[in-house]
Amino acid sequence: MKFLNTVTKGGALIALLLLFSNFALAQRTVKGKVSDAESGEGLIGATVSVVGTTRGASTDIDGNFSVEVPDGATQLRFAYTGYAEQVVALSASNTVDVALKPGTMLDEVVVIGYGSVRKTDATGAVGSITEKNFNKGVIVAPEQLLQGRVAGVQITNSNGEPGGGINVRIRGTSSVRSGNNPLFVVDGVPLAGGDTGSGGSDAGFGSSAARNPLNFLNPADIASIDVLKDASATAIYGSRGANGVVIITTKKGGTGKGSLSYDYSLGISTISKKYDLLDAPAYLTAWSALNPGSPTTGIDGKSNTDWQDQIFRTALTNSHNISYGGSSNGGDYRFSFGYQNQEGIVRESGLTKYTARFNGNKKFINDKLTIGTQITVANNRDDNAPISNNSGFQGDLLGAALKANPTDSVYGNNGKLKQININEPNPVAMLELSKDFTKTLRALGNLSAEYSITKNLSFKTVIGFDQSLSSRKAAYSRDLVVNSINGKGRLFLNDVETDNRLWENYFTYTKSFNRANLSAVLGYSYQNFEYVTRNFEMTNFKTSDLDIMLNNFASSDQGKGTSVIGRNSSNTFDELQSYFGRVNLGIADKYLFTATLRADGSTRFGGDNKYGYFPAAAFKWRLIDEGFVPDVFSDLGLRIGYGVTGNQEIPYNLYQQRQRYNDWDINDDGTQINGGGIGDVTFNNPGLKWESTTQLGLGIDFGFMDGRVTGSLDLYKKNTSDLLILVTSAQPAPQPFFFTNLDADVQNSGVELSLNLVAVDKGNFRWNVLLNGAYNKNEVKRYGGLLNTGAINGQGLSGAFAQRIAEGQPLFAFFVRDFAGFDNEGISIYNDGDFQQFIGSPLPTVTAGLTNQFTIGNFDASIFLNSQFGNKIYNNTANAYFTAGALGGGRNVTTDVPGNGESRLNAPEVSTRFLEDGAFVRIQDVTLGYRVKLKSTSVSSLRFFITGQNLAVFTNYSGQDPEVNINKAIEGVPSAGIDYTPYPRARTILLGASVSF
Amino acid sequence: MNYKTLKFSMFALLGFFAISACTNLEPEIRDSQLREGEGGVFVPGDPGEALISSYKDLGAFTDQANIYSLYDHTSDEMIPPTRGTDWGDNGVWRTLHQHTWDPTHSFVVSSWNQLNQRVYRCNQVLASNPNAQQKAEAKFLRAFFMFHVMDLFGQVPYREVTEGVDVNPRVFTRAEAFDFITRDLEEALPDLPGGGPIATNSKATKAAANAMLARLYLNKAVYKASNAAGPYTFDAADMNKVITYSDAVAADGYSLATNYFDNFSSSANNEVIFTSAEGSPQNRWFMTLHYDQNPSGWNGFTTLADFYDKFEAGDQRKGIAATPNGAAFSGLGRGFLLGLQLKDNGDPVKNSRDAFKPLVFTREVKIAGQSSEKGIRVIKYHPSNAGQYIFLRYADVYLMKAEAIMRGGTAPVTALSLVNDLRALRGATALAALNDATMLDERGRELYWEGYRRVDQVRFGTWDDVWSEKSVTESFRVLFPVPQQALDSNPNLVQNDGYK
Fold first, then answer.
1. Under an 8 A CB cutoff, do A3 and B13 touch?
2. For residue A907, what are the CA distances in angstroms to A313, A822, A886, B190?
3. Can you tell me the distance from the alpha carbon of B423 to that of B430, in angstroms, rounded to the nearest whole number?
4. Which of B17, B22, B31, B58 to probe the A interface (max A CBs under 10 A)?
5. What would the pLDDT profile of B85-97 be if each residue is shown by its tens digit?
6. How far apart are CA A781 and CA B163, in angstroms?
């Protein structure tokens, strides 16, 4: 036992591990080139592995490789994404050249968390996508790369803002309250779910969401994205796996002499659809029709202004990416630097992003120890336009532009901005008299050490960090005629800091027996998450100058005593401690078993519920290797998997009674400050525990005609129970709501199909078709209560809502009046009377994507279509702005409002009048590229391309874009499928070139 | 793998788990204070801080929605018309005026939550080792909040600070709640500070407790009635208590103000007993003024022509015309705003919602489909000089005394003389006689839009009458329904009659 005593310290452990390093066996170096069988071009980054060992290498920019081969090894395996794998017998020669044929995806490697497997050996439902099939165009965040490309993965931009929020739903929406986004893992580091920047403070026209926290990654650095969809695959991430896991792998350096590449692109963006508003003459005519006998003198400003043109612009995006990498003596490295300057199509808005990334790996101690490092540092500047999710009747920038009187001019006779009153803000003034930007510095990195203890057993330790500093500053000049700003000015300073740490250790054991292959992972993970906020507000400025307000804020009249407040600060710290294990067993290459268990302990839960246990099991039968499968099949496999995963995305410590000093705020007049009392944040809630999802999946993987047709078909049933949700406290209570595990189920069941087809492969012409489609049905079961959500904003719509969660309905089912037209007086009539009922769902039942890729000689082209069907959208924009009442009161409307039979005295209550079909087919991107044939040896490749992004949308939806999801949560219950003056979508033409040396 | 390797690996594994369990997952609390100890006991905080927060909680009453709306929008002195695209708000306002609310009405739900939560927070003060005066103030505030729960809903849930989410609060009947509230106030009285009227009387005083006790005993017949809808039998002993408590308020230096509208300004110095330092009265002008007036309002609520007609000419409470002189808000009168409205410079206000015609407020107003100029507006707090938001005012206490005498209490003066003294001060002619109808009208004239009309109408039995744009006469509506969400959350609650 004296051994045991010495192993109690980490350092000793590592030292002992080193003791067991085997002596190097005799070996030789084999070199060669891997090329494309058709073009003869070298393949960069192809994998070369020595069969039966863990040795391997990858090819450099020219396709060359060099690998150490131990004595006794007999075969080399060559693999490259999108190409057929080849196994080559080793001879006495030290040179092996291989030509790989494209056309089969069978030998893709998929990353499954704490390891990777060949796709054909994957027992779970995993969608993989590599750089070749990434979406094209102006891409800010990694999710956009796979939007529409993977069956069952629905990715929705909340709006068209550069770097705006993105919702990812894998196999439907399963949570009622807690987070519905999947877990993102970047090079092995699981990211925290929260925002890294501050949302917009309400300066009088609503509040807005923070931008996408994943903007810090440079899409050009990403090599592949793997989406773990079912529980048998995600269970290895336990408590964070219920909504799926998205694993992002970044590019590594190639082998050999090294390479340098540079990409440039210029994007030109314009708004994809403006609203068809009345022009000045039509407006006056329509107004008069609603106000018979009234002269137009009061409302006629004698101009003709297209207010949308005043706030939108043709926007340019410049991107530069430079990277270099290479390898030597068992090490590789890659360094990249990216710059992207994206102007938004709304004036003053945009995104400027600098990213630097280093990725390096190096082997030591006879190649037994591998040290790897990945570091990303990103500096983002977001320029924000005054656009919010929940503006009231005055409207935000877009609302103001829609309703602004078209006969008014932007500037008055005195040359100054014409601002009528606080209820009808001038949108140009909102832009010119405000400045709102966020700067975020984020660093993500990890250092890993992997040591081969024996031929079969290795140990890996990973230390990771993810830290961000974000500061949002928003100044509104006192010259802006908006309630709470006019005459006073207002300044908001909001900081967010995140600081997350990871330490993971795991063993990997692989062993080939007679007819069986075993691989097992056993590990421990610790992660902590610190989240810090600070918010300040100032008013009563002595200056109108935005820069002085921002940079010399003593210009706020602080002597008044009601001009400055520190609104509040916060600091929360959460920990997650986990043990996990996985066993993969393959028998005769035909029967593949996987069993997974993760135990997660979290500070989000108290008492006996700190730990949750998440098991999963899966089985795959590779029928193709049985004798009875007809020759027409090149692949056939059956998969079945079952597992339990969890969700812990609720705020910090909600189980112990705690108090905090409440936020302060300054009233609209700047004459009074309120708040600061001690208030309750939680009360005793010892029973709180994980939300859990059980999932049963069945899948078939198939291939025909030598792999020219491959695909998979999946069936699944997901049941989410113990739903984490805010419910009404039994009063008296410190808070009106508390989190509980609701005894109810949310069920998602569906079918997914992925199909890859080599339609033509003849001479130098090649045509690939990639199709994915998914059907999902969502239903709430065993739920006795009801929850209202989907807040509808606008004039006369305070307290209005459009969605209700209830038994037997899909989540977020629309709950509205059934509009039946107008009566003779022009007042709304409703079928079944003036009350709300369930009508329609915001969740699409069918999503589909279709890609066609063509290669003709040196030309390549691709066209990608994205679609969804079966959902409704609530058009809050029309409800708030496009009514006879709005027009009668002097506000502009769309051209379909005049003559619609509505009285100007009608109250436009929430009804099916504003509920529309959300189905669409979008031509998401079309790319044409040309690879220049080079005689030069110094330049290894040169390609020019042109991409059209969001070229057309086919839909019956009357709003700007059917792909929209504005956050209209009520009391923390999220909403879905509601459109309210979102930042509009752009149509972009992108021109670019890539060159490698 | 040979034996030695295997043995090593096992040891390595053991060592690895031995070093790796590095956290016990106990929460690290950095930005808040724990109020819960082992076994769920309450960990007291600073009672002074907690008490300050309970006072700040009073700000909820200054809102135009929620608690205030249940007391005034439901009554015969206010109407919230839907005006085209404005104030539809999913029908929340219309159903209040028309007495068609149901247990899911959002203001019913939020009033229940706001009031009960405030009661709980007073319990936290009391559990935090307060000194004698802090304890008395917390009891006063608890009584104040709980009074509204009892009055609106007819039953009162109660939870100790040590009871977590897994405990279903017990429920007091209305009669039990009445006893609990009066006991709190009576126990608080000795330790509350004395003190006379000031415009910023935002702390509990003996006068405030006496005024609340007068209100409780005046309405005791209502709160103790076997049927919430009546009939109510007023006991002479209770009326004598009303008189005693009213006299105790007067003894602390309170009297009627000579200039009625001074009460709602920062220079109030006779009547103001209890106010809120949190929030301000600004919602009271925003909620009624037209968009194009100064200050620009939300063009919401108005009074009814029938209510306006209860005032005689010369009664200063009916209003004081504006004297536009260019100063900010000088275009705005006080009291009822009817007819042509003026800007601060004396020019007519132009109605931007109606072709910029001069803005003329009308007598007539209906509940829906109204254009922007319909209805008589009300200004008690004037934007040029508004004091704090008032909960208790001496004129209310004074009229309670008069009513107690009318209902059989014993005093050296008659109810009629008290009422006529008040009327004389306000510039109104003397009443010849006093009865239920004239007494209720007088309270309306004195206290309109101050947030308690509902209590008076229930006590006088006119709650189920018909008035303009209100035809429902269901007497069970003297109580609001227990919100559906509250019933779902606490099985000890039983829905009030009529709403089942």
1. no
2. 35, 11, 10, 54
3. 6
4. B31
5. 888 888 889 999 9
6. 31
Digit-coded pLDDT (tens) for A358-383 = 999 988 888 889 999 999 999 999 99
How many whole angstroms separate alpha carbon A990 and alpha carbon B486?
57
Least CB–CB distance from A13: residue in B16, B35, B353: B16
Does this model's pTM top 0.90? no
B194: number of Cβ within 10 Å: 10
> Average pLDDT, stretch A45-53?
77
Stretch among A482-486, B323-327, B472-476 having the lowest mean pLDDT:
A482-486
Q: Is 90 exceeded by the pLDDT of residue B339?
A: yes
Q: B490 to chain A: which residues are within 8 Å by CB?
A: 730-731
CATH superfamily of A27-102: Carboxypeptidase-like, regulatory domain (2.60.40.1120)
Q: Which of B15, B40, B90 sits opposite A7 (nearest CB)?
A: B15
Residue A800 structure tokens:
């209005």
- What number is the average pLDDT over the span A768-792? 90
Find the closest chain A residue to B110 by CA distance: A736
Run of H or E including A920 = strand A920-931
The pair phi, psi for residue B250, each rounded to 5°, is: -60, -35
Contacts of B18 in chain A (CB under 8 A): 7-8
Chain A positions in Cβ-Cβ contact with residue B164 (cut-off 8 Å) = 657, 683-686
Task: Respond yes or no on whether the N-terminal peptide bond of residue B295 is cis (omega within 30° of 0).
Answer: yes
Whether B18 sits inside 8 A of A727 (CB atoms) is: no
- Dihedral sign for Cα atoms in the order B430, B435, B438, B442: positive
- What are residue A476's DSSP bridge partners? A434, A490
Task: List, in order of start, the domains of chain B with CATH numbers.
Answer: 44-192 (1.25.40.390), 193-278+387-463 (1.25.40.10), 282-383 (no CATH)
Phi–psi pair at A298, nearest 5 degrees? -70, -30
Where do the domains of chain A lie? 27-102
The answer to whether the CB atoms of B166 and A800 lie below 8 A apart is no
Identify the closest residue of chain B to A456 by CA–CA distance: B1
**Can the peptide bond before residue B231 be classed as cis, meaning omega within 30 degrees of 0?**
yes
Decide: residue B203, CB within 10 A, 0-12 exposed, 13-18 middle, 19+ buried: middle
Q: Which residue has the tokens 């309120």?
A: A674
ipTM of the complex: 0.80
A507: Cβ–Cβ under 8 A, 6 or more apart, which residues? A457, A458, A459, A460, A520, A521, A522, A523, B9, B13, B16
Contacts of A423 in chain B (CB under 8 A): 291, 296
DSSP string, A124-155: S-EEEEEGGGS--SS--SGGGGGTTTSTTEEE
Residue among A736, A906, A908 whose CB faces B117 most closely: A736
What's residue A410's pLDDT? 95
